[in-house]
Amino acid sequence: xxxxxxxxxxxxxxxxxxxxxxxxxxxxxxxxxxxxxxxxxxxxxxxxxxxxxxxxxxxxxxxxxxxxxxxxxxxxxxxxxxxxxxxxxxxxxxxxxxxxxxxxxxxxxxxxxxxxxxxxxxxxxxxxxxxxxxxxxxxxxxxxxxxxxxxxxxxxxxxxxx
Length: 162
Ligand SMILES: Cc1cc2nc3c(=O)[nH]c(=O)nc-3n(C[C@H](O)[C@H](O)[C@H](O)COP(=O)(O)O)c2cc1C
Ligand SMILES: Nc1ncnc2c1ncn2[C@@H]1O[C@H](COP(=O)(O)OP(=O)(O)O)[C@@H](O)[C@H]1O
Ligand SMILES: [Mg+2]
Description:
Pathway: Cofactor biosynthesis; FMN biosynthesis; FMN from riboflavin (ATP route): step 1/1. Residues 8-138 form the Riboflavin kinase domain. GO terms for molecular function: ATP binding; metal ion binding; riboflavin kinase activity. It is built from six helices and six strands, in the order αβαβαββββααα. By secondary structure, the protein is α+β, with helices and mostly antiparallel strands. The protein has a single domain (3-141), classed as Elongation Factor Tu (Ef-tu), domain 3 (Beta Barrel). β3 and β4 (66-73) form a beta hairpin. It is globular, with a radius of gyration of 15 Å. The mean pLDDT is 91. The structure holds flavin mononucleotide, adenosine-5'-diphosphate (ADP) and magnesium ion.
């Protein structure tokens, strides 16, 4: 099966988890914070979902749904030994949200993970991903996922306090 088919078969992919600490590189070194999921969420990804860079929608707790990009894999530039799943939300938050529930809907695939010969080229690749994701998410087929019941449930009272 071609790579794109393997990847797309699982999309849209919905998941939630509590935001944990990563290596603290996202904001400090890249200027692009990424909310990291715990190991259990990463381990629960479908076994054949390819590592790489994806885009979709995300909300924190019962908050609004925003555009996002997500990186799944080993961050070859940093040579991580554990697979991670990290979401950058295209929204300015007043404060950090470690420990809160992050809800994500992955709707599309952008590219495989890559190594880079400088931090600047990693940063510009990520900025390019963000711009491309913003454009693609305006397509009607993607906009409708923003309204999915998955996000409505996270807004309902039954989720509060859990
Ligand atoms: C949209 C996006 C694309 C990314 N692409 C790559 C990549 O191609 N190669 C790579 O090594 N890391 C990539 N990363 C991951 C960053 O290296 C990672 O977010 C950074 O190391 C922060 O890690 P931390 O959360 O542990 O601090 C990407 C991250 C995002 C959000
Ligand atoms: N727009 C945003 N997208 C993702 N995380 C954000 C955003 N704004 C603030 N944050 C906060 O920044 C943290 C991620 O920063 P980062 O430098 O990647 O640290 P870590 O290595 O601990 O993941 C998130 O856990 C979240 O609390
Ligand atoms: Mg992070």
